[in-house]
Amino acid sequence: MSIQLAFVLFVVIALVGWGICELKGKMTFTHSEIEKKEAEEIAEQQKADGYHEKNLHDLLKNNSTKGYNAVG
User: Fold this and answer.
1) Which segments within the chain are labelled E, that is strand?
2) What's the CA gap between 24 and 16, in Å, rounded?
3) Are 70 and 64 in contact (CB under 8 A)?
4) Is the dihedral of CA 54, 55, 59, 61 positive or negative?
5) Could you give the CA distance from residue 47 to residue 37 in angstroms, rounded to a whole number?
6) Whole-model pTM?
7) CA–CA distance, 9 with 19 (Å, rounded to integer)
8) 35-51: per-residue pLDDT in tens?
């Protein structure tokens, strides 16, 4: 088997896999009633504990990838 044929087969298999994933992504997904209730309970608990979801500005303000200055 030549390398060109192997490459073509690889591309075909990748495209078929990609197509299958795209079709699965278009299917609608709905949570069950139990999952919805659990999500609401978790949200209420986080709200009671003072949880605040950070946006990009908050995350960059407290960025810890500044080398030695991140430790000190």
Assistant:
1) none
2) 12
3) yes
4) negative
5) 15
6) 0.42
7) 15
8) 999 999 999 999 898 88
